[in-house]
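Homework help board

Subject: predicted structure for assignment chain

Our instructor gave us this sequence and asked us to write out the predicted structure in token form, then describe one feature. I got the tokens but I'm not sure how to describe them. Can anyone check?
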Amino acid sequence: MGPESGNWYLDLSYDQWVPLPVSGPRPAVRYKHAATVVDEKLYVMGGSRNGRYLSDFQAFDLKNLSWSAIKLKMEANDLDSKDDVPAHVFPATSGHSMIKWGTKLLVVAGLTKNENDKVTVRFIDLELHTWGTIETTGEVPIARSGQTATLYGSKLVMFGGEDWKRSLLNDIHVLDLETMTWKAVETMQKPPTPRYDHTATLHAERYLLIFGGCSHSVFFTDLHLLDLQTMEWSQPQMLGDTVSSRAGHAAVAIEGNCYVVGGGDNKSGALETLLIDMSKLAVSVLTTVPKRHALASEGISLSSALLGGENLLVTFGGYNGHYYNEVFVMRLKPRDSTSNPKILESPAAAAAAASVTAAYALAKAEISNLSIKEDLDTKEIPMDASQKDLSAEINAMKEENRALESSVADITAQNSSLKTKLEETNETYAELSKELLSLQGQLVTERSRCAKLEAQIKELRRILESMPSLEQEVQSLRTQKSAFERDLELTSDIPKERSVGIWKWVSG
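My token output:
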């Protein structure tokens, strides 16, 4: 496989990951960067390595398979000087989101070396190679990283993340890209548990699917759905293969399918590349990689590219105990996309629709039976034909009955599965509660011990602070002692002098 013809991707097998041979120098290894494909080029911005945030902007040409570093300059009228960096350097950023909007890339949120109270939106002009900060208004969300930002028409929908104080979030904020105005959105029904390092994909230009992510102690494998028209949350049950919990993974939606790669649980990386049929909410394992593989990494990026009519998945970077800077691609097998997208309704709407459908079906059956009876009363129908029609209708009713019984069995099985999961969750909650009480008891003991230590330290400080005065008193006593000793010596000399004088007088 080589870039000579530019059609190297036609030599690839379907649904298999392949590392690309790269000519020239590669970018530094990293994870938690942002990447997207524009005009057959993969653009990579920022990221993190060994605790350092990166500020470089790189482009990978998917035709000739070569990297190039792009030096950005601050736009002349940009007044943002808070980042205290040279004008040609984009602020070093990690855990951010990047989307294409017009001829620009928008870089949203993320961590920089300077703490900002609110989410910052910057742009990179792909034609002029300039960057700047966009002034946004409205209900600007709190600064964060590990969030998702999904393009929905002319709006950007941001969900979740982790703020500077490590508080986890599950809020929804929408940025109008035409007016650059933020709005905090109130949603209905139960939202997902606060989380970060999850993924979000858009289905049928209406539904936002949140998959996976983590809190500070739990890694998720759940799927949540937000109807962007009604702003109502639901948690549908996924069908198909069982998948492992993961965070730090990446996902992209192509023609009604969501592809998920990478991620992990801080113990091991996720080896499966997942295919989620967003219409059927069915998940399947597309392929797997060996342990410690570069694709079984957290903080990896996943983009989609269209080359010569072929859909490709493109990954870059990641970390699983080792940092990476390889580019992997997968040529996607063409899949049936002619079926109409399924309308994924909220639980309440689904129940109402089911009730209406059932009532309609019952009324239709009654009308049909009445029509048959009237026809039998008013028309002379040959016995054989009547028996055939009746037999066919009975068979049809039996088939419907079997289908209903099968549906009831499926629902019963789902309910049983949900009850089992609920019991497991309750057991886990009870264990965590016991552990929390134990930790609280240990904390009280440690606080008491700390209080005693602080009292001892305070007493020692008081003694140390009184040392100078004690030394002064000792010095004073020493001085008094010396003076007393001198006086004593003088006193002992006086009688001798008087005795000599008396003997002189007697003899004289």
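Reply (TA_rk): Your tokens look well-formed. For the description, you could write something like this. The helical segments are 347-378, 383-507. That's the kind of observation they're looking for.
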